[in-house]
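pinned: reference chain
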Amino acid sequence: MNKQQAIALWVAAANIGLVFAFPPYDYLSMARNYVPTFGGFHFIGSPPASALLNANFLILEMIVILINAGIAWLLLRNGDPMERQRTSRGQRAVLWLMAINLVLMLLFPPFENYYAITQAVLPSFDGFYFIFGDNAQRQIVTTLLYLEVALVLINGGLLWLLFADRRLARLSYEEKQALVKALRDRQRGD
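pinned: its C-alpha cells
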C-alpha cells in the first residue's frame, strides 16, 4: 500500500464516520397517516421527534463509500510498470466515471411525493431531487436507487472488461515463457 492509497482509505473511514454520525431519517407525521417522508440528516445522538432511521439509504451510502474506496485503491496504485500496464487508460476512465456516477446518484436520488405513496410493488416516481434540498413532502424510492446502483456497477464491470488491454492475449509462446520467467524471478527477489 502506498501513501496515496492510505490517504484514500483514511478518507473512506472519515466518510463512514460522518455517515454514521449524521444518518438519514424519515419523518413520520400523524397528519399524513404515518407515511414516512424524508426528514434529512441529523446527528445520531439527537434525532428529531417522530423520526425513523432510513436504513435502506444508510446501507446505500455505505455501499457507495466502499465501492469508491475500492475504485480509489485501484486508481492510486503505483507498482512496477508491469503492474500499472494491467489497467488500461480506458479502464481508468471507466473507474472515474463509475465513482462520479455513484456519488451523483446519492446526491440526486429518486423521490416520490407522500400523497402518491402506496404499498404497490413498484413505487410511483416523482423525479430526481437534490438530497440536501427541501424534501419534506417526498420519500426516497430506495427500490429505484438500488436498481440504479446495480446497473451502474454491472455496466461499469462490462466496460472494464471491454477496455481491458488485449496485448497479453496476443503474446507468442516464447514471449509468454519469458514473461513467466520474469515474474518468477521478481517473485524470488521479493
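why pinned: DSSP finds six helices and six strands in the chain. The mean pLDDT is 83.
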